[in-house]
Amino acid sequence: MVFNKKNQSQGLLHKGLLLPSLLATVAWLCGAYLIVEHIVTPHNQAQVQQAARAQGKIFAQDVESLLAERTRQLQQIERSEQPLEEQLKTAQLPKQSRIQVFSEAQIRVGAGEKPTLNFALVDLLKRTRQDSQQPLEILRTGPDNSWQLHNAVNLAGQQLLVSQPFAVLQTSLETLDKNQGQIQLLQKFPDSIAQPLWRGGQGSGFSHSEAIPDSYLQVQFSPSPAFIQQHSLPLVWINLTAGAGLLLSLLVLLRFLPRDNRAPWERSQKGGRSESEKFPAPESQQDALLADEALPQGLASAPSIAPEALQQNMTNRAEARSATKSGKPQHPLTTEFPPHVFRAYDIRGIAGEEIDEPFAYQLGKALGTLAQHAGEQILLVGRDGRNSSALLSNCLMEGILDSGCNSIDLGLIPSPLLYYACAKGKNTSSGVMVTASHNPAEYNGFKIVLKGRPLSEEKLQGLHQLMQQGPFKSGEGSNREQDIKDKYIDEIFNNVALAGQPHLVVDAGNGATSVLAPRLFEQLGCAVTPLFCEVDGDFPNHPPDPTRPENLQALIDKVAETGADLGIALDGDGDRVTLISSSGRIAWADQLVMLLARDILARNPGETIVFDVKSSRSLAQLINQYGGRPVMWKTGHAPMKNKMLETKAILGGELSGHIFIRDRWFGFDDGIYAAARLLEIMALREQSLDELLDSLPQMESTPEILLPVEEQEKFSLIEQLREQGNFDNADINTTDGLRIEFSDGWGLVRASNTTSALTLRFEAENKEALERIRKVVMAQIKKIAPTVVVPNWELLN
Hints:
Layout: H1 2-12, H2 15-79, H3 84-90, E1 98-102, H4 119-130, E2 137-141, E3 146-155, E4 158-165, H5 166-173, E5 181-187, E6 195-200, E7 208-211, E8 217-223, H6 225-230, H7 236-255, H8 264-267, H9 275-278, H10 282-301, H11 306-321, E9 347-350, H12 357-373, E10 378-383, H13 389-402, E11 406-412, H14 415-424, E12 431-434, E13 443-450, E14 453-454, H15 458-469, E15 479-481, H16 485-493, E16 503-507, H17 516-523, E17 527-531, H18 553-562, E18 566-570, E19 577-581, E20 586-587, H19 589-603, E21 608-612, H20 617-625, E22 629-633, H21 637-647, E23 651-653, E24 659-661, H22 671-685, H23 689-694, E25 700-701, E26 705-708, H24 714-724, E27 731-733, E28 738-742, E29 745-751, E30 757-764, H25 767-784
Parallel strand pairs: 10-11, 10-12, 11-15, 16-17, 16-18, 21-22, 21-23
Antiparallel strand pairs: 1-4, 2-3, 3-4, 5-6, 5-8, 7-8, 9-13, 12-13, 13-14, 18-19, 19-20, 23-24, 25-30, 26-30, 27-28, 28-29, 29-30
């Protein structure tokens, strides 16, 4: 009986059936998956998207018809030949609308009432004088800063401003069929992000935006789950078919199961190899042992090259750091330079390992060659205070000279002084700064300017290729030293006017501004308390990064201790700045750009202002409010500079502290000059930094959050998040990473170009919305990268 049970069990789990069964299961499951993934799902997606586009067009036509009556009424007023007073008495006007009449002389900020003219309305009226066919604009105006519909009409040398509460249109929008999905009304001005005006219904996944003709308005439709199900093929039949096919396959396999036809006494004998198979002959054993012994004997007799290679490598490194009788280092020829140090907008890596003397020498030869091809015969060279910068700078200049190009050694300076020299130079506008900016002490690198533009992205990759393959120019260039610190200080002294004697604490972080910054602010008339203003390449007090709250604590404490009016934190090479108010409040760079924008646009309405994807949504709104043109762009000093040159922007800024001012200045990122201009604003307004910050729109936000990841994975993680992330009905901006725009806030995930990390930031109208958005984004990050360590951002404050 025992034998029979054992035999039955073996029959059910027969090894001849197990593998085919597994293969059949895998085949049917994979087949079902492939059909669903590559046939059904694309078909469903295409069907849903096609239906969503059609529905979006219907909703857009509905909104267009709602606005058509308003347009017709305004056209009747414009075409009528009756006197203005009679028209206003007899004409049919949009519901609850208010009409104001302005002559050309009356069009100015503050004129009129309910609403009074702001910069945006003044701009609308002026544009209408030039071209009467101006679309409807929905703006926040009036004493309650509410949304209102505005049109301007030319009439008999005068202009009519027709204003109507948005609530009138909203009442009509509520009648749209919201069961189909989520309907959003957006307004998108040229070179600006879309602004949500109204939202109704619930939807997710694919969204379609349909522009309303002759307007800045768009209708965005996201289908509801019911809409998606209605326009999709059901998957249940495919799953049932796969299950039935698998069951049938298993039944067929059972029919082909081999039978044990041996007699009972044969089954009781254990099968196995013959004695000759189990135990080889003595001669075979000996042959095997000899074969086994041959391998180590061969290895032992082979010449060992590891010690000599190691010794040669040590000799080469020693020769690279030694000097010849002429005093020049001997740099071994090499074409192996790590590609990952050529980042998006500069070169940066570990000093002595990835960035060493041969690297700097070869870079000098390549840059000298490029400069001469560009028509430049001189390269300016500056360096920061890092321990490796002096040696790298010397090797760089040696390579420049060996290419036949000349160099000017500016010495130990902040990066803005190199940019200043390039902007003011009569014989050259090209240079190289040896610096790793805000990175820790073990790093170093190079920032490159060629013909007044930063070398970045694909041009840096081309530079890498040139360093490895050549060809290089050759010759004997000449080098000289020049000190431009006094000229730079005099330029700012003649540019900025301060009143009184504000008390400052300047934290240079032991970086390149340690001597220059306190001296400049003292010359402007400030009382300066220096903090960590001794150049020290080890950065013993804190890393030279003023965007990290933990690096600002000593400055906050010093401001409180001394009763100073302001604290100024600069990074390792002086192109970033963060300010601390007298109460210890951190003023992030996007807030500083708001203060500068408000001041600059008051004198230069209509100008463009560029800001990065990490900046507050309030910044774009403020720029619009004061009559400017907001442009959101990629993070990084090089992309920002190039975009400012492209758009002729008057101001630019990044959350990381890079602020670019072209109003009365040269448009490069300069933390020292930006701080001086903000001091000027405080003096002109007779307000403290706390009072100025209180006058700005108040939003809940996190600081910049860094999520450490592997260097080679960070860009692929962003791509996976873009393809696989589910952010419901959010508007995804992919200018730089993913900026996920919700109606009440936003979240950002992008790959850092200076560190091995993902950069995150969140902002919302209140704390509840901030936490909701943060959880949504972090959940999607965790889905694609389960092992990533998520810091508690509240501990960063």
